[in-house]
Here is the input.
Amino acid sequence: QVQLVESGGGLVQAGGSMRLSCAASGRTFTSYGMGWFRQAPGKEREFVAAISKSGANTVYADSAKARFTISRDNAKNTVYLQMNSLKPEDTAVYYCAATTLWIGVRPPQYDYWGQGTQVTVSS
Here is the structure.
């Protein structure tokens, strides 16, 4: 089992940047592919980005390509989401998740979830 704790959310103006962090504890961090999802009010949880167990492979939602970067530091048991050129439509609760798969893009593929961190982008 693994526990996930997100941090780094808050309020930012449109066009700004923000970096989210997700610290993992429990089982060996490299046993898990990691992903970021988000959920806006009244909407379903949606995929943002994912990174493989080794960090060699990444996948992005179309909305995140060219603006967001997912990375992981296996020595620190932490995964990051660097978000640039933020838009008001990026406003959501962002969740970190862990999967026993090499990499995953759908919520049912993930076994463990963090509590979420709010990101608000003002126009």
Notes: The mean pLDDT is 96. The chain is about 0% helix and 50% strand. The longest strand covers residues 18-26. The CA atoms of residues 10 and 98 lie 23 Å apart.
